[in-house]
Design a protein that fits this description.
Shape: elongated
CATH architecture of one domain: 2-Layer Sandwich
Distance between the termini: 175 Å
Strand content: 15-25%
Oligomer: single chain
Largest sheet: 3 strands, antiparallel
Strand order of the largest sheet: 1-2-3
CATH superfamily of one domain: TonB
Structural class: alpha+beta
Length: about 220
């Protein structure tokens, strides 16, 4: 039995030949573009060697050991224990007939007994101011001064009066008056005819000051 090898002779294509030529051209161009490598010059002088003395390091300095100083820790002084025995009764149960609470002390050095009285808070006083007594309301207006009436002059007088416990005026002070005649007439009428209901404090009559105004008008 025999084998026969058959080879087909084919002409190379132009495209493949062009690519092979281009690759080789790039390799050659890259090699030409690389910088030239210059070898260093050979040293032609004489080398002289001589020994160098190595300095010995200094020995370490050892300081003398300092004596240790011991500081005594602070001592704490404590006071002797002291016990106090206090017997406190029930605060809702009075100890004596007066409703006071008594605390009996033991060996605490406070004495034989301590008495604590209950704290009493006084209520605010009830104060009622003075007012004009309506029974004498007709006597409040003073007589019109003749001189001011002829000239037809009107005015208002402001005064402060001190009302006593009996309702009478004890003192009067002028605040404002347009003319002295009006003030004189008001003062005379207040001290002689005015009556008030005295002020009270917790139901008891007391003296008090009041501010009043008296109007003088011409009617008709």
């Amino acid at each position: 039995m025999s084998y026969v090898s058959v080879y087909e002779n084919k002409t190379p294509r132009s495209k493949g030949v062009a690519m092979a030529v281009g690759v080789h051209a790039l390799i050659i161009a890259g090699a030409m573009a690389m910088p030239e490598i210059v070898a260093p010059e050979k040293f032609k002088g004489t080398i002289i060697a001589f020994p160098v003395k190595v300095q010995t390091p200094p020995e370490p300095v050892i300081e003398d050991k300092k004596p240790e100083i011991k500081i005594a820790s602070p001592t704490r002084q404590t006071l002797p224990e002291r016990s106090i025995n206090i017997d406190v009764p029930d605060p809702f149960v009075p100890v004596n007939n007066y409703g006071n609470v008594e605390i009996k002390a033991g060996s605490g050095g406070f004495g034989d007994a301590i008495r604590i009285d209950p704290i009493k808070i006084a209520p605010d006083p009830v104060i009622v101011g003075a007012s004009l007594n309506r029974r004498y309301a007709g006597d409040f207006q003073p007589a019109y001064p003749v001189g001011q009436l002829r000239r037809e002059i009107e005015g208002t007088v402001s005064v402060r009066v001190l009302v006593g416990t009996d309702g009478r005026v004890k003192d009067i002070q002028l605040i404002e008056s347009p003319h002295e005649d009006f003030w004189t007439a008001t003062r005379k009428q207040a001290l002689g005819k005015w009556r008030f209901t005295a002020a009270t404090k917790d139901g008891k009559p007391v003296e008090s000051w009041m501010t009043l105004k008296v109007r003088f008008e011409i009617n008709g």
